[in-house]
Design a protein that fits this description.
With 245 residues, the chain is mainly beta. It contains three helices and 17 strands. It has a single domain, classed as Jelly Rolls. The strands form three sheets. Strands 1, 3, 4, 6, 13, 14, 15 and 17 form an eight-stranded antiparallel beta sheet that branches. A seven-stranded antiparallel beta sheet has the order 2-5-16-7-8-11-12. This is VPLPA-CTERM protein sorting domain-containing protein.
């Protein structure tokens, strides 16, 4: 009886693994001047224009999700931004009160808008409109974009042409993690607004996002006090048995 009781407690406390499910992109929506072309399987989309910032979002609160898929620039032309948004609300590109996270990856260093857009992967906080200016180009706080962290190995390294990368993201209200090809690149703590997950392009054509899957984000680690709790349950069971004698 004691072992059965303890097993039940463990089962209640241990995180339950959820199978990743493919995501149907046909219900998503675009913001900005991009051209997002959905594949027939509804699990792949290609943005084909070199233009101002544009996003393709899932239109649902996405905190608590782990998302994975692939990203690939299918051209040798240009060297600009690809990536993702987290906590985004429909219309935020032109919303002066916006508050969301931008994960962008630039292929090469380039001076534009009076500043240098740096090669590499990073995460920034957007706190207002995001347009074709120094904010989107070089993470300028004066234009509503504040860089929070650069990636561990890809922080100053751009993506490669015609190369497929796998990505994994975990999005919670207090933590965001981003892995590329199985290597954790970004891991940041804070207080983050809820909102949509989406794909992001700026000044880069022919980018394909594919194979997106989502599942419930991993649960927090079990408390260090768990062994003491179980010992307490065991002691309580022993006292009950003794009292019945």
């Amino acid at each position: 009886m004691r072992n059965t009781f303890i097993a039940a407690v463990c089962a209640a406390l241990l995180p339950v693994a959820a199978a990743a499910a493919p995501v149907d992109l046909s219900t998503w929506t675009a913001n900005g001047n991009g051209s997002w072309n959905l594949a027939g399987d509804n699990n792949s989309v290609k943005q084909t224009l070199n233009n101002n910032p544009t996003v393709f979002i899932n239109q649902k609160n996405s905190q608590g999700l782990a998302l994975s898929g692939t990203i690939k620039v299918e051209t040798t032309s240009d060297d600009d931004f690809i990536g993702f948004v987290l906590g985004y609300n429909n219309g935020d590109l032109t919303n002066g009160a916006a508050d969301y996270l931008l994960i962008d990856w630039k292929q090469g260093n380039q001076t534009y808008h009076g500043c240098t857009g740096s090669a590499g992967l990073s995460i920034s906080r957007v706190s207002g409109q995001l347009g074709d200016n120094s904010g989107a180009w070089c993470h300028d706080p004066a234009n509503n974009v504040t860089e929070l962290q650069r990636a561990t190995t890809f922080g100053n390294t751009g993506w490669l042409d015609n190369t497929e990368y796998t990505f994994e993201l975990i999005f919670t209200g207090t933590n965001v993690q981003v892995s590329v090809n199985g290597q954790k690149e970004l891991d940041i703590n804070g207080s983050f607004a809820n909102g949509s997950f989406g794909f992001y392009n700026y000044s880069q054509a022919n980018v394909r996002y594919a194979g997106l899957q989502e599942e419930i984000a991993p649960a927090v680690p079990l408390p260090a006090s768990l062994p003491l709790m179980l010992a307490g349950f065991g002691g309580l069971a022993a006292l009950r048995r003794k009292a019945r004698k």
